[in-house]
Amino acid sequence: MTHPVLPLAFLFACSATRTTASDAARYEIEQRRWEARPLLVFAPDPADPRWEQQTGALDDTKAGLAERDMDDVRIAGDSGTANGDEMVADDVAALRARYDVETDDFAVILVGKDGGEKLRVTETIAIDEIFATIDAMPMRRREMQTG
Fold first, then answer.
1. How much is the average pLDDT of 37-54?
2. What is the Cα–Cα distance from 121 to 33, expressed in whole angstroms?
3. What single string gives the DSSP state of each residue in 112-133?
4. What is the mean pLDDT of residues 99-105?
5. Three-class SS state of 87
6. What does the alpha-carbon distance between residue 100 and residue 12 come to, in Å, rounded to a whole number?
7. Which residue segments constitute the domains of the chain, with CATH numbers given?
8. Exposed e or buried b per residue across 121-138, where buried means at least 16 C-beta atoms within 10 angstroms of its C-beta
């Protein structure tokens, strides 16, 4: 004779696991076109010193990122976050493939609101250099003039 509580407990445990897995957010870069300037930071893993330096600098400049309509996308190994939200694995893989960044590579890539790649470096870069690149863009100049 089976106990009716056991199947319910099992179903509850399975649904809790499913909920946790679905907490990851979708980040599809094409959906952000004309709204944001994605800054993508790729690293082999979060222990990489370049990762620590670059993401630490980003953490110190949240206001500058927001002012320039930037998405903060961080990918280490096979996992990633977009604006602080965990990304689904398929979106991480899609970004690695789209920008041709292998899992053992380090790269910082700036994408413009038009979807075009504006800057790519394979070592850390000063945030001021990224901001200067953006601030020199015609679209950003218009944004600064209008408000």
1. 97
2. 22
3. -TTS-EEEEESS---HHHHHHH
4. 96
5. strand
6. 41
7. 31-146 (3.40.30.10)
8. eeebbebeebbebbeebe
Q: CB under 8 Å to 147, separation ≥6 — which residues?
A: none
pTM: 0.81
pLDDT in tens, 52-87: 999 999 999 999 999 999 999 999 999 999 999 999
CA–CA separation, 130 and 110 (whole Å): 8
Which amino acid would we find at residue 61? T
d(CA 45, CA 79): 9
Assign 6 a pLDDT band (cuts: 50, 70, 90): very low
Residue bearing tokens 């800054």: 39
* Measured CA distances, 10 to 2, 35, 106 (Å): 13, 43, 42
pLDDT digits (tens, 9 = 90+) for 10-26: 443 443 333 344 577 89
The residue assigned the tokens 């907490």 is 23
